[in-house]
Specification:
Helices cover 0% and strands 49% of the residues. With 115 residues, it is mostly beta strands. A hairpin with a 4-residue loop joins strand 7 and strand 8 (78-83).
């Protein structure tokens, strides 16, 4: 059974940083591309970033302007998302997804950016 468990969210002031983690199990993590997606209250899912199976290739939502960085540790079956220079519009529930399939995601971790 595929399991994805996100953590690391919280309340942060504008300009602050967070590091999200996604612990994966139940599948061969090192063979799977992974994505981060987010959902703000009352809105649909938005793709944030993707990373290939070996971590050498990443891509990001253009509007993020380099503020987020995705990485992975295949030895630990863990995906990461470093969020820097956070803005109020980054407030959302953040999810990791297997094979960048929006339907295969964890329970999410809440990121709230507020002063």
């Amino acid at each position: 059974e595929v399991q994805l468990v996100e953590s690391g969210g919280g309340l942060v002031q504008p300009g602050g940083s967070l590091r999200l983690s996604c612990a994966a199990s139940g599948f061969i993590f090192s063979s799977s591309a992974m994505c981060w997606i987010r959902q703000a209250a009352g809105k649909g899912f938005e793709w944030v970033s993707g990373i290939n199976s070996d971590g050498r290739s990443t891509n990001y939502l253009t509007s993020l302007k380099g503020r987020f960085t995705s990485s992975r540790d295949n030895a630990k079956n863990t995906l990461y998302l470093q969020l820097n220079s956070l803005q109020t519009e980054d407030t959302a529930m953040y999810y990791c997804t297997k094979d960048c399939n929006f339907g295969v995601r964890g329970q999410g971790t809440q990121v709230t950016v507020s002063s």
